[in-house]
UniProtKB/TrEMBL annotation:
<dbReference type="InterPro" id="IPR012675">
    <property type="entry name" value="Beta-grasp_dom_sf"/>
</dbReference>
<dbReference type="InterPro" id="IPR003749">
    <property type="entry name" value="ThiS/MoaD-like"/>
</dbReference>
<dbReference type="InterPro" id="IPR010035">
    <property type="entry name" value="Thi_S"/>
</dbReference>
<dbReference type="InterPro" id="IPR016155">
    <property type="entry name" value="Mopterin_synth/thiamin_S_b"/>
</dbReference>
<protein>
    <submittedName>
        <fullName>Sulfur carrier protein ThiS</fullName>
    </submittedName>
</protein>
<dbReference type="Pfam" id="PF02597">
    <property type="entry name" value="ThiS"/>
</dbReference>
Length: 66
């Protein structure tokens, strides 16, 4: 199925979760925030949040500073 990730089309398998998408994109274990269709997905729900065809996913990397 096709989804948008930060505005770029990506083909992923059906029933892919947010956690699986992050693994596909080699982003697992990084400090980031994920929105699906403009709704923030808590990190605790990455494994249980399934993506659907044509979802718009935004991934933002956290950058530390001081």
């Amino acid at each position: 199925m096709e989804i948008l990730v930060n505005g770029t089309p990506h083909l992923i398998p059906a029933d892919t979760t947010v956690a699986q998408l992050l693994a596909i994109l080699e982003l697992q274990g990084k400090r980031l925030a994920v929105e699906v269709n403009q709704e923030l997905v808590p990190r605790s729900q990455f494994d249980s949040t399934a993506l659907n065809s044509h979802d718009a996913v935004e991934i933002v990397h956290a950058i530390g500073g001081g």
